[in-house]
Write a structure and sequence with these properties.
The structure is a homodimer of 116-residue chains. The first copy, chain A, is an all-beta fold and 116 residues long. Chain A is 0% helix and 53% strand. The first copy, chain A, has no helices and ten strands. In chain A, the strands form two sheets. The first copy, chain A, has a six-stranded antiparallel sheet with strand order 2-3-4-10-5-8, with no helix packed on it.
Chain lengths: 116, 116
């Protein structure tokens, strides 16, 4: 059994094209021999965002702190702490911190083979 | 894309032998066509616990609220909000709310084929 304090996991800036002021902590992934899925925490500074993109695997997301808008095929949808999203494979999406001043934090789980 | 408020997902009492005062909300699972993993939220009343058991699949857990002890091969380990655990397949484990008065809440992710 592995137990971690998420805030002690190294936060790495997301440097994909279109990402802004967002970092990721890989809580459990291939380096922990997670067999099926990887657990990551994303932290978006005020005004930060993930890329507007799609990929051949799903996300499951839980908002932990702050106010986030998820860009979906049906437009922007607001999410708050305690809200969860299932983004299917191939659906274009983006997570944006809509606050001008407050950081946002969310968990994002993906199939482990897509976590480097 | 599916978005849910976790607290609006139906909470079902866990009725496995050894479980006490614990309920589960299946946030995303087979009924949502989650392809790889299921996201559940467990809520443990004061003094509540999950069964002390093992199974052929892993758990990834994030404590959201309250104080939890996880029973592991190396004894009880305390967990607080912001702590995460990877319980490998076949390792015996149990989650116990150690507070006499405060409910606890945790996310628990499993491979989807093990979520009914």
């Amino acid at each position: 059994m592995i137990i971690k304090k998420i805030e002690e996991v190294t936060a790495v800036p997301v440097e994909m094209a279109g990402a802004r002021d967002v970092s990721v902590r890989v809580v459990f992934g291939p380096k922990d021999a997670a067999p099926t899925f990887a657990l990551r925490q994303f932290e978006l500074a005020a005004g930060g965002c993930t890329p507007h993109h799609s990929h051949p695997f799903e996300h499951e997301v839980v908002v932990l702190a702050g106010e986030i808008a998820v860009v979906s095929n049906e437009g922007d949808k607001p999410m708050s702490p305690g809200d969860a999203a299932l983004v299917p494979a191939h659906e274009k999406h983006q997570f944006k911190n809509t606050s001008p001043s407050v950081p946002a934090r969310m968990l994002c789980i993906v199939p482990v083979q897509y976590q480097k």
